[in-house]
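Subject: Predicted fold for Alcohol dehydrogenase, 326 residues

User T.R. writes:
Posting the sequence so we have a shared reference for the thread.
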Amino acid sequence: MAYAIRFHETGGPEVLKWEEVPVGMPGPGQVRLRHEAVGLNFADTYFRSGLYPVALPAGMGVEAAGVVEAVGPDVDQLLVGDRVTYTGFINTLGAYSTERLVPASALIRLPDDIECATAAAMTMRGLTASYLMRRIHAFKPGDSILLHAAAGGVGLIVSQWARLLGIKVIGTVSSAAKAEVARAHGCDHVIDYSHEDVAKRVRELTEGAGVNVVFDSVGKDTFEASLNSLARRGLMVCVGTASGPIPPFNPQLLAMKGSLYLTRPALADYIADPAEKDALASELFGHVAAGRIKIEINQRYALPDAAQAHRDLESRRTTGSSIFVV
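User M.O. replies:
I've generated the structure tokens; pasting them so everyone works from the same file.
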């Protein structure tokens, strides 16, 4: 039998339960996948808390990597034994599991030089970084960005990718230890928001101009400072709400602060087209395989310890990427 983390009610980490689950054989368009590693993402806490509503009881997690054990009818692009990864199909929660059925269309075949642990640590974060750097804005050398949560999983990949493109990165962190991590991965300047005024410091570092783009995964607590850090006609990219949803505001505020642009993208809309997903994944895997972008797996958990993993994540005790080892 297979095992999985499931939740029967929304709430804190304590609602996560380790349960035996049936899997069965794959149907049309499906494969049976044996997981080797599972990704831990902050978005997982949104499902558990009820911020992202799902029918209960439900599985948990949307990112994992493993080996194809069986293929169903009408699946001709994958074979038993193929190593694959996946992320982002929100309506099919269940990655926190030892085995499961997965739509074949969601899977990305792994290159030989990318391990399953690395894939589970980077598929969601890496594809997010990929669309942020290659689709969301026409970056050019010399541009500047403000990157919140610079020592987090997405932050470390974005800062390394930005360095490859000649982009100046100002990162924000919550501690001196995280500041060192951020600097080591490409941040030109680091702001500790626990005791520094972010917008004021950004203006000092940019000689009053502000940055071209802000990547803000924090939300409520940083929204105003992010807007105040942008150059005229700059782009505010809201990529997460770790501190809570952004309160409603009058769009006139964007005009008052310099004719700013604002977007709230979702990964699902950048990997919905198979060709675009393959292109984003191919460039990501190429950078990682060549060593141009390093994936830091700084926390490893056993699947039954999912509740503790969520506590660590929400208390901001983690850096880089976290995975479950199956």
